[in-house]
Amino acid sequence: MGYVLAAHQYGKAEIRVVRIYRDAAQHQIRDLNVSTYLRGDFADAYLQGDQSSVLPTDSQKNTAYAFALERGVAEIETYALALARHFVEQVEPVRSARVDVEEYRWERVRVAESDHPHAFVRASQEARTASVTVEGRGSDQRISVLSGLRDLVLLKSTGSEFAGFLHDRYTTLAETHDRVLATALTATWRHLRTEGDWDAQHTSIRQLLIERFATVHSRALQQSLWEMGRAVVASHEEVAEIRLSAPNKHHYLVDLSPFGLVNRGEVFHADDRPYGLIQCAVQRDDAPPAGPSWQAPGSFAG
Amino acid sequence: MGYVLAAHQYGKAEIRVVRIYRDAAQHQIRDLNVSTYLRGDFADAYLQGDQSSVLPTDSQKNTAYAFALERGVAEIETYALALARHFVEQVEPVRSARVDVEEYRWERVRVAESDHPHAFVRASQEARTASVTVEGRGSDQRISVLSGLRDLVLLKSTGSEFAGFLHDRYTTLAETHDRVLATALTATWRHLRTEGDWDAQHTSIRQLLIERFATVHSRALQQSLWEMGRAVVASHEEVAEIRLSAPNKHHYLVDLSPFGLVNRGEVFHADDRPYGLIQCAVQRDDAPPAGPSWQAPGSFAG
Amino acid sequence: MGYVLAAHQYGKAEIRVVRIYRDAAQHQIRDLNVSTYLRGDFADAYLQGDQSSVLPTDSQKNTAYAFALERGVAEIETYALALARHFVEQVEPVRSARVDVEEYRWERVRVAESDHPHAFVRASQEARTASVTVEGRGSDQRISVLSGLRDLVLLKSTGSEFAGFLHDRYTTLAETHDRVLATALTATWRHLRTEGDWDAQHTSIRQLLIERFATVHSRALQQSLWEMGRAVVASHEEVAEIRLSAPNKHHYLVDLSPFGLVNRGEVFHADDRPYGLIQCAVQRDDAPPAGPSWQAPGSFAG
Amino acid sequence: MGYVLAAHQYGKAEIRVVRIYRDAAQHQIRDLNVSTYLRGDFADAYLQGDQSSVLPTDSQKNTAYAFALERGVAEIETYALALARHFVEQVEPVRSARVDVEEYRWERVRVAESDHPHAFVRASQEARTASVTVEGRGSDQRISVLSGLRDLVLLKSTGSEFAGFLHDRYTTLAETHDRVLATALTATWRHLRTEGDWDAQHTSIRQLLIERFATVHSRALQQSLWEMGRAVVASHEEVAEIRLSAPNKHHYLVDLSPFGLVNRGEVFHADDRPYGLIQCAVQRDDAPPAGPSWQAPGSFAG
């Protein structure tokens, strides 16, 4: 009885690429965190220590920087697609490549009520994300494009309840018909196409998620997520599927009665841990199979 | 030869107080991280384990929550001042109290081009800060109020140089007349008064810091900081002093010449560590002594 | 054309359970971070906001604490298994449950060359991990048990090279036959059985991973990982598969030649980002299918 | 009325220097995080953007790496002292320099019950620290040496109480005569001398702190800290002063009575925030003034 090298991949993670566009008077900035992952005929590097088929992760890093100049970073989806295609098509042993990009948000500095041409202020901790996987070459090539966001921190101070839930031996939670609901949303959507107006689509989907979070009267975070997700799929026919992962960032009403005070939903303790974690996927009926889209490298080892 | 208990203080750190104002149709939120530090006649707790003079840190936490309701959190400076005064004036063994507050920024969600009444999106990683120290009672009472901000992340993509510097045996840095300048600013200013329109003043000073960072042609981060700081002191006569601490978040031009590419200030590597750290204080000529204002609890043990 | 709720799960993440065994003179401590995830008939919570089938995440938290007393935490695998089984077998709508546990390492304090009976010092940032998934009831029940560790930080100061690799247009890396090799290992292994001497097995596998990292002359981190993984599978017949994820924490030789110094592998810069990321799985020939074992909740949304 | 540049300093923070000693068969590793801060005649850089007196922070970084080879890192105190002296004595405009060093702990890998010659495993999150300040030259030179540690995480599962404390209007805490006491200690001690057997002294003081934490029956964390600090000063006549900063990492007894269980100090919730923060200084009667020792750069701006 023996054993085998059952799976493997390698790459360069967290390449911090900053691309400045300075052709026009008004500079633009795209601030990225890029990770590359290659799969293919690399077994000998593991089994024998033979590197002859291994493109160094250092070269992958160089490619990410060079492409930022050569191809530009008009939109992170197109940039990731160019990189992933390059690795599959130009590096012989590569069978498939995944490129993950996070983009950080900057706003223009306002001076005297005008946009400053080359000064920026970091807008939020939120990141815009893209993940492109390219498998194979020529007519067999399959491409998957995911877009998304993470750490979109949302809170509503009313319009949320949690009641009528199942009770078991270990249930002590009181029902509530008015609570604070807060989350740090991760949302990722899979595209039916490999081309699109990615910036405009991202703006539209982000706004839709925020609006639905705000306006849906929430009987549970589950319900909010579904309504957020289905609004995206319903109004964006180019989206095959959206996945939402939302920690329930608990805000506990502080009991002030020992001090003779009545706390009518005005003072809360924002707790760190534990937190609820609610996740769902909303998928178009006719969506094609996801293929390798959702195999995040971060989860490789469980 | 002996030894003594030379100094001591204690308190409750990082109380996460969230205050919702829900009286009007338009809710408001103030999201705080509060820390309290008490100094006074607490030596017996150390020397003998005698707690009879020790107000539990748990009670300090309760007070922070109760005050958020009783006194409200109109502005973090007034809230911190109320708390610090309370500890000194109402808790017998307390000789001085420091209350630090961080406030996190939220923006209203926009729905159909209107502000939503009770939904919010976290605005940035930046925090607004206040630190109030109250010493003594009655006519001997001294009060220090600091306001500030931290993690205001700024970047300019041109208008910054670094040249003409000192060379020693270990100097290899090339001069540059056009570089990216980026920082995550911490700024703290000391007030001449204990009352003010804190919100308006904060908005004004923050905007001034950003504008000066943007518009000063920078021959070094040092120069930018001085120009930022002095603009605040010059235009805000109620500010005795401002201190600025600014990491130089290095953006290194990537050498793309091995790939036949010319990188004219367009592609950078955003490095993590090490970073320069530039600090300065700008003080009004006639500023009174700072007293205990700047003794941050975080630096107690070096 | 429509859309569906294609997948969903929910639970309580990062429940910080500390269990003290104080029956004997020598106390014991098990310090855990527990996360629970339930899948089953919960669609109505999403689709209609109907909570009648939803066991609150708060109840899941309570269960984790109660089980730490009722069932104890002899070993994290048995504790996780008891919890996961409970949710599937006792909570009607639950079809499958996953319980993830991290355990933090404490060592006994030594006083006068003896173990102190009830004082401990935190041993390292490393965590021991277990993930148990239970699906179904009765004879259809399927159970998957994973064990592992994360953040085992290893370094060898010689005995590592990287040469003979593939070159493409973007390759500038020099070959090296003597470098520092460092990583923060995540390793997870899947068991063939649901019972075992988990503590002894963990100690044995951890030691094997460390020994192989140390003693294999490394021609690449890939080779080291394979040798580490296969040693585990070869000597632990109860292990179906092991997965390894290893950042290549780059230590760059500092060029000191401008200062007239020759750096013969003695002074390095430990870089933060980017880093290589090497991953592989070693599997026994006759391993049964993994089932849901590796579907980490953290990767749900990509 | 005008304003002045009242204070300033600059330097390079978090230089990640790794020094390998490979002369003997048994390699040694010293893994450092070094920060340098210079004060002196640098006003023109702020006021006029004139860099002619400014040694680049990049040169300071280079010096830290070069000294790791030229002078070695036998002990972090001597390394920091050499660096700080160099800046003051060799760089003309520098009036005083502070060098902070953190050292990370590695243990040798054990293979077949022997120490492996060149493989290491990271020992814990704890860091050893040193801070050296050098002011002036020649006979006026003043030198301050601090040594210490941070993030020494300690826990005792009994032998700790908290009772008999002051009550005010906001006190709800119950007294306890048996609780878990846990902290992540920062300790820093100031030396009377600038030479010493730093490694041996560090080992001795660290052990003393741990032993006293373990063996003192604690009526409050305050009392434990005093007993820990005074043991150091009493037995180390070369220590002028020690400062201790200790978060009270609360472990709350979980109420399991709703589930018919009696929790006799066996199951706890390890809470994140808020936490108590207890700080004290124990000083030798005849200690000379501290001078600039404790002016941590991190607290410059409050």
Describe the structure.
Chain A folds into two domains: 1-140, Urate Oxidase; 152-302, Urate Oxidase (Roll), CATH 3.10.270.10. Chain A is 22% helix and 41% strand. Chain A is built from five helices and ten strands; from the N terminus they run E-E-H-H-H-E-E-E-E-H-H-E-E-E-E. Chain A has helices at residues 43-47, 57-70, 76-90, 198-215, 221-235, and strands at 3-21, 28-40, 94-111, 114-135, 142-156, 181-191, 239-248, 251-253, 267-270, 275-284. In chain A, the strands form two sheets. Chain A has an eight-stranded antiparallel beta sheet with strand order 1-2-3-4-5-6-7-10. A two-stranded antiparallel sheet of chain A has the order 8-9. In chain A, helix 4 (198-215) runs antiparallel to helix 5. The longest helix of chain A has 18 residues, at 198-215. Chains A and C meet through strand 1, helix 1, helix 2, strand 6 and helix 5 of A and strand 1, helix 1, helix 2, strand 6 and helix 5 of C. Strand 4 (114-135) of chain A pairs antiparallel with strand 5 of chain B.
